[in-house]
Design goal:
Blueprint lengths: L1 H4 L2 H19 L1 H5 L9 H17 L9 H15 L8
Helix pairs in contact: 2-4, 2-5, 4-5
Length: 90
């Protein structure tokens, strides 16, 4: 369903965010106990580095309203940092 209502760029950015979150969750136990060693997995390294931004993006309170364009811009910014060579468009 989502593919019917979002464009290709939005889909790509959302997929990138999902990959970041999945990489973090896969190694979360090791990360939390300090046993994950940086450099072991580039995807996990990226997920750890972007964790604060991803959490802030995903955890909006019910009282908070963010315009769709601002949400897309935030998502685009996170995805741009996660994918080398991708540049965020303002």
């Amino acid at each position: 369903m989502r593919n019917a209502v979002i464009d290709a760029e939005h889909r790509s950015n959302a997929d990138t965010l999902q990959r970041i979150e999945a990489a973090y969750r896969e190694k979360e136990d090791l990360i939390l106990v300090g046993a994950y060693q940086k450099g072991t997995d580039a995807n996990v390294d990226t997920a750890i580095e972007l964790r604060p931004q991803v959490q802030a993006f995903l955890q909006q309170t019910p009282e908070t309203s963010t315009p769709f364009e601002a949400t897309q811009q935030q998502l685009r910014g996170i995805a741009a940092q996660a994918v080398p060579g991708r540049r965020a468009r303002a």
